[in-house]
Specification:
The protein has 214 residues and is of the alpha/beta class. The protein contains nine helices and five strands; from the N terminus they run E-H-E-H-H-E-H-H-E-H-H-H-E-H.
């Protein structure tokens, strides 16, 4: 039988409400919350700022930084006796790499091989997550949430990055389920377009209870 990691992951594009759902589930269940890497990570803040401002930075280096740190986070969360709930994980790095490295095909192919090998190692050593929750959002709500959360690096450069944000959103909508299902991870999609934060949390909690996870 395949190993199962004592982990739930909440995924989705930027501003989809992942952090709020992670916190909401953790508060109701006592699960251990793992915030996305950006929280308190000064190196990552610098990287993201440079990317949004189109400063010179090697895209492959950026993606290697993320995959290394996310692997460590998955390892740490899988070792806990208490169920952990992660804000994004390794599987989503592929979507960002595909967009950021589209003009570097050789680097992208090398990265893709590394990404697949990293996931294979993670599943072999720690097991598959119990559930991957994907928060779906449409473009208008995405824009509203970007400006409502008011992160300087995102809104100060929104116009010049608008095409990137649209491509990112489309990649999630069109391909995310296939990526997760390829690796045999149980999947839950929540369309948050017409839901407030409380409704999303309530819906997710009901599903977790139905699946015997919470």
């Amino acid at each position: 039988m395949d190993k199962q990691a004592n982990v739930i992951i909440v995924g989705g594009t930027i501003a989809a409400g992942k952090s709020t759902l992670v916190e909401g589930i953790a508060n109701q269940t006592g699960f251990y919350p793992y915030p996305e890497l950006r929280e308190g990570d000064e190196v990552q803040e610098i990287i993201l700022k440079k990317l949004y401002e189109n400063e010179r930075i090697h895209k492959a280096t950026v993606q290697y930084y993320f995959i290394t740190n996310r692997f460590r986070q998955f390892k740490d969360s899988s070792s806990k006796l208490m169920t952990s709930i992660l804000d994004r994980s390794i599987w989503e790095d592929f979507i960002f790499a595909k967009l950021l490295m589209k003009d570097e095909p050789q680097s992208y192919e090398h990265y893709k091989k590394l990404w697949r090998k990293t996931i294979e190692n993670a599943l072999k050593e720690f097991g598959r997550p119990k559930l991957y929750i994907y928060l779906k959002v449409d473009w208008e709500n995405f824009k509203n949430r970007i400006f409502n959360r008011n992160r300087e690096a995102e809104i100060a450069n929104f116009s010049q990055n608008e095409d990137y944000f649209k491509d990112l959103l489309n990649e999630y909508i069109n391909n995310f389920r296939d990526i997760v299902e390829e690796w045999g991870i149980p999947f839950l999609e929540i369309d948050t377009t017409k839901m407030n934060h409380k409704e999303v949390i309530d819906f997710a909690m009901a599903e977790l209870k139905n699946r015997g996870i919470a």
